[in-house]
Each structure stands twice: as structure tokens, then as C-alpha cells.
Predict the 3D structure of the following.
Amino acid sequence: MVLQMVEKQIDGVTVLDLVGRITLGDESNQVRVKIKEILSKGKTQIVLNLGEVTYIDSAGLGTLVSGYTSAQSQGSTLKLANLTKRFREQLNITKLVTIFDTYDSVDEAVKSFAPKA
């Protein structure tokens, strides 16, 4: 299955909906290029919606880490939303859960960018 990506804006936050598999090759490269494209537009608040990602391999995880570090180095923030049970387990096993800010829904992730009152 080809990876599909839809970029949208919610309350000034760039949300990237991902549908399909993020694996070694074209899919992980597509995600890497898309994140860099978003960052090059000066977007500083990014949420990856992973609710429709059916499978992610180690290369896909590496792509997410790469996107995260690219965002950090440019003063941007990348957060993950709608993690499947299996993907959440992968993050726990690899200890990547300590790196990413994860949220149960896109709305929660978007709200997390709001200034604290």
C-alpha cells in the first residue's frame, strides 16, 4: 500500500495525516522529505497523526527520529498523535517514548501548543 499524506492546518498547527505503511524505501523517504518541506516553510508546530499507519519498521522509526531532530534544530516542535497500540509498544521497547511527546488524539496534541494560562 502506498503511503498517503495529507497536510492541514488546525489553529496554526500543521497536522500531517499519514495513512499506510512507513517502511524502508520510498515511504520513509516521503515522510522525511515532507517534514523537511514543512520546516522549510517556517512552520514551527507540527503534529504527525499516526492513527491510520498500519505498520512501521525500524527505518520508519528512524525517519520519525530524524524528523524530530530536524525540527528541534530549527526551533520547531514535532509531536505524535493517535498512536496505535502496536506502535506505542514499539516506542516503549525502543525507549523512544522518552523522546517524543505523544497524545491520544490530534485535538489533544494541537491544544498542547496553546500558551499556558
About this structure: The two ends are 44 Å apart (CA to CA). Residues 58-73 form the longest helix (16 residues). The mean pLDDT is 95. The chain has four helices and five strands.
